Structure formats: structure tokens, C-alpha cells
Amino acid sequence: MLLIGDMLAFPVRVSLFNSRQIRSVVISAWDGDLIVSSSERFHYYIASGQAIYAGLRDGKILLSDANEQLGSFESITVSVADSLSLVRLRPVLPQIDARDYEEMIIITADVDKIHFVNQIDADLYIAGVVEAETGQRQTGEFYKAKGIICRTYLYRNINTRHENEDFHLCDEVHCQAYKGRCKSRNMILAAVKATGNVILTNPRDSEPIVAVYHSNCGGETESSQNVWQSSQPYLVSVADNYCTSSHNAKWQRTVLLDDWIAYLVKNGFIHNSPGGAVDYSFQQRRRMRDYKINNTTIPLNKIRADWQFKSTYFSISLDGGNVIFSGRGYGHGVGLCQEGAMEMGRRGFKYDEIIKFYYKNINFTNAEP
Fold first, then answer.
1. 12-16 and 169-170 as β-strands: parallel, antiparallel, unpaired?
2. pTM score > 0.85 for this model?
3. pLDDT tens-digit series, residues 89-125
4. Which residues of 323-343 are buried (b: 16+ CB within 10 A; e: fewer)?
5. CA 122, 103, 101: angle at the middle one, nearest 5?
6. Helical packing angle, 140-157 and 122-134, nearest 10°
7. Which of 82, 186, 212, 253 could disulfide-link 335, Cβ–Cβ 3.0 to 4.6 Å?
8. What is the C-alpha separation between 183 and 180, in angstroms, rounded?
9. Contact at 8 Å (CB) between 340 and 234?
10. Are 61 and 55 a contacting pair, CB within 8 Å?
């Protein structure tokens, strides 16, 4: 991670379409011209509204425009001609919706795919993350809070998340979701810039905190110890009434009783144990760590992963031959509850109040030297 006092004087390098095996792409210029270059002294201009095609062939990138092949390269760089220009990437094989990017795209031929890296200013990247993670039409105070959290994640993970690779972070949930240019310049980008270079730090060691977040906690956030077996003093359970009327506050899933019993037996449960009928019901009025039935204990995290449930915050009831899982929340539940924080913003809370509600005993630190 970066040490406090180290400023992000260098651009952030973000791997795009990181887990996808892209073999061809259309590269277009929007709102301005683009400059394409390579180490082989190749230079080509894409006028606004025009495009070229890049495909993987024999371990290299074959470039073509509408008229002819332009050459074959191990790597090319696509740069904007001015601050308003955008690089539009539309993968063709496989087909993925087009995305717009700012500043510079480095395109490299890999073994069986084309690799894309967006080299970009930190604030522009953070604004893109905030928009991808939370959408538009939220309040400025919420966006300020979210911007500080995303910047903190960046500082903590920039040198560790993809160590020994040619980029800092990827654009997927393994790091932070990023889909390119932030369209909401007057709200989201302005909010990110308004917080300067502030990050959240742990007063015990002055390091950036583990700035995790999730969609909806269902009324109570989870402690980090119950999820990852590593306790952080600032990631503790918090009662949260702000998210309970939101979109992802509740969910339900029905499973056949026979299937549930088979799953329990697979995990050590003895079905025909002495003592009469088995009570399969389970109530979570407060968040718990384990599901216990007779002498069998199964971590709720395991159940959630095995059954692809939205959260571990669920209760169980029986309805004839069915097991009803009545759940609350969406995500791991640790740290900031995004839908709760959005509601706090709508109710007039300031960004620092929102942050301190979800992360306890943390410092706001200016990371600039």
C-alpha cells in the first residue's frame, strides 16, 4: 500500500474487461481525436466519429481501418488529443457493450486475448468507480462519502491487489467496479474533487483502513470477524434503520425440504438421530455467525456461498415440504451500507457523519505531502 505522505503523483493503471477473453475490438474516437502509436514508430490519427479495428492474430494485434490493414503490433497506445476526447472500446469477440474512457488506453497482445489498461488520473478513476458502484441521482454528501471510501481503497490496495502485474487494480468487483468515464461531472466528479486527497486511516497505525462496503445490510451491519476471521476495530456491527425500506432490504428463497436435509447431511448432520422430530427452524433477530441444528454447526458464510443467497442474514421456516429462507440485505454486510448511506444523504447528513456512522474510531487524513 502507499504510505501516508505519498501522493498519487502517477496515474492509476486499471485493467479493463479483466476476466474476459477479448480477441477483437472496435476503437472509436468521440468528442475529439485520438492518437494511436507504438514502439515501432507507428503513428495514426483517428478523427472524431471514426474508428479502427483491432484483432488478435498470431500473438499480435492486427490493426485495420475502413480501407486497409495498418500493421501488426505487440502493443499500441491510444491517447486522447485533448481533455474532451474519449476512447470508445466496443469488444466484438465476445460482444460487450461499448464503454468510454479518458486519457490513455494501453493495448497489449496476450497469449490468448487482448489486454487493455486505462492509465488515468486518480480522481477521474475514483469518480468512475463511484458512478459504477452507486449510479446517478444521489446527493452530493453521499458522493463525497463514497469518494473518500473509494480513494481509501485505492491507497490501501494500489500496490498489493495485483502485485507483479502490469496494472494496479482491475475493473471488476475483485477490486472496485469501474466502467469508464463518469458521466455525472457536475455531481459525482465535483464531489470527489471537493474532498481533496482525504482518506480514512486507522489511528492505531495511521494506515488506510480496509474500506469495504456492500449494497444493503438489512438493518444491521456485520462485524469483519464474523466474515473474514480478522477483527478490525472500525468494522463492527452497527444497527442501521436507514436501509430497511430500500430495494435490497429483503429477499426470499424456497428450497425443497429433502434438498435441504441432503445438504445438512453432507455437512455432518445426522438425520435419524435419537430424540424425535428435528426442528429445522432458525431465527436471526440479530446477526449470527453460525447455523446450528442438533450437534451440527455450519458457518452462515458457507451456506450463503453454497446456495448463492444474497446475504447471511436470513431466518428459516417450514411450509409443508418446503424450507422458506426469509432474508435481509444484499452482500457481506461489512462496512458501509450503500443504500443506508444514500438515505442518510437524502435526510441531510454530512459526508463525515455518514462515514463515522459505519466506520468507528477512524481518522480523516490528508494524504498529500
1. parallel
2. yes
3. 999 999 999 999 999 999 999 889 999 999 999 999 9
4. bebebbbbbbbbbbbbbbbbb
5. 90
6. 120
7. 212
8. 9
9. no
10. yes
